Amino acid sequence: MSALEAVKYQRGKLEVLDQLRLPHEFHYDPVSTRQEAFDSIATMRVRGAPAIAIVASLGLAVELHNNPIAAASDSELITRIDEALDYLKESRPTAVDLSNAIAQLKAVIRTTEGKGQTAITESFIEEAERIFKKDLQNNLSIGDFGTQWLQSQAGASAEQQISVLTHCNTGALATSGHGTALGIIRTLHYKSFLKHAFCTETRPYNQGSRLTAFELVHEGIPSTLITDSMAAALFRTKKTENNIAAVIVGADRVVRNGDTANKIGTYQLAVLAKHHGIKFIVAAPTTSIDLDTKTGDGIKIEERKKEELTQITGAVVGSDGQVDKESKVRVATADQRIGVWNPAFDVTPAEFIDVVVTEKGAVEKGPDGTFDFSKILPERW
Ligand code: MRU
């Protein structure tokens, strides 16, 4: 079984899986300029906080490798790269990984100022490649720390398997591999600690049914898809039978007190989990942590176009039940004149989150109801 890859990269060449065509079609778009990277992100052909940062970083790296900027001086080159990064930053606003990657790239190229333009360009490309590789290592560590936490808190083991619910897509497709929340689920499965994974459809963009369900089936993980509106009924009727121990989600931005922006629908799951005595886990690399924003009130939530609610794209299913993978239809699912509110993310207050699992360890909530990330990020605190 081949691993799913959101991006394929070698120096000078980047290909990005068009996730809008999944699960029916596997098609990689070449991305070789900042504009193509911006477009892939803004049109959601690539999504998920880490993957967005990776495509922006590597997209510009490929452009700089193939068409180095001809500048009059080192400082002019740095200014021109900064401008390209500032442009990419506008592609999507909520996920902080992109801003964190941009800040990191800007800092690194400054360390080579005075060493010549080839050295500056090289330092940019190497840092973009490091960000890409590090993300996979981060996710493997998140998988281990999350599993250890579930062993200690929920007794997860091969003898006492647990079931979990996840929302949106946080897997290999949203990252450089393994995944964050889905990474914990993968690790639980590899250790035979997982009984069953439930995933939500994740309206309106269906990252759960289009991407997570696809990843779970691809990996042979025992799993069931539900609509977002079925979570309460799932907890009420199937918690005991399935030993549902945790909701595990990713994050687009975890702020200083632990308030977490993630895909719309996350907050309601956190409220439900608390009511039903189910642990609520946020799995995110430290690149998703924003210490400059104090609480969730400071997070800018992206609002998207109304057609995401009133129309849907899919493939034709024949009368024999077979999906015609070549076909593509766009269907209206509502009166097109209706007004729509379509926030892409919501904020889950820290009080509903039990633990934030990062690649540096699991951070539990303190007695004051907030998270203290100074232990894992002393250098950024
Ligand atoms: O709008 P999307 O599809 O980019 O949103 C993705 C999510 O919200 C994910 O759950 C989140 O980015 C975590 S990615 C590991």
UniProtKB/TrEMBL annotation:
Family of the protein in this entry:
Belongs to the eIF-2B alpha/beta/delta subunits family. MtnA subfamily.
Alphabetically sorted, this entry's keywords are: Amino-acid biosynthesis, Cytoplasm, Isomerase, Methionine biosynthesis, Nucleus
Q: Which organism is it from?
A: Hypocrea atroviridis (strain ATCC 20476 / IMI 206040) (Trichoderma atroviride)
User: Does the UniProt entry include the keyword Cytoplasm?
Assistant: yes
> Signal sequence span per UniProt?
none
One MF term from GO for this chain? S-methyl-5-thioribose-1-phosphate isomerase activity
Q: In which pathway does it act?
A: Amino-acid biosynthesis; L-methionine biosynthesis via salvage pathway; L-methionine from S-methyl-5-thio-alpha-D-ribose 1-phosphate: step 1/6
| GO cellular component term of the entry, any | nucleus
Q: Where is this site: Transition state stabilizer?
A: 168
- Catalytic activities: 5-(methylsulfanyl)-alpha-D-ribose 1-phosphate = 5-(methylsulfanyl)-D-ribulose 1-phosphate
Which EC number(s) does UniProt give?
5.3.1.23
Active-site residues per Swiss-Prot or TrEMBL entry: 252 (proton donor)
Repeat keyword on record: no
**Which InterPro entries does its entry note?**
IF-2B-related (IPR000649), IF-M1Pi (IPR005251), IF_2B-like_C (IPR042529), Initiation_fac_2B_a/b/d (IPR011559), M1Pi_N (IPR027363), NagB/RpiA_transferase-like (IPR037171)
Protein name according to UniProt: Methylthioribose-1-phosphate isomerase
Segments crossing the lipid bilayer: none
Outline what the protein does.
Catalyzes the interconversion of methylthioribose-1-phosphate (MTR-1-P) into methylthioribulose-1-phosphate (MTRu-1-P).
The processes (GO biological process) annotated in the record are: L-methionine salvage from methylthioadenosine
The opening ranks of the lineage are: Eukaryota, Fungi, Dikarya, Ascomycota, Pezizomycotina
Which superkingdom does the taxonomy of this entry point to? Eukaryota
Q: Where in the cell is it found?
A: Cytoplasm; Nucleus
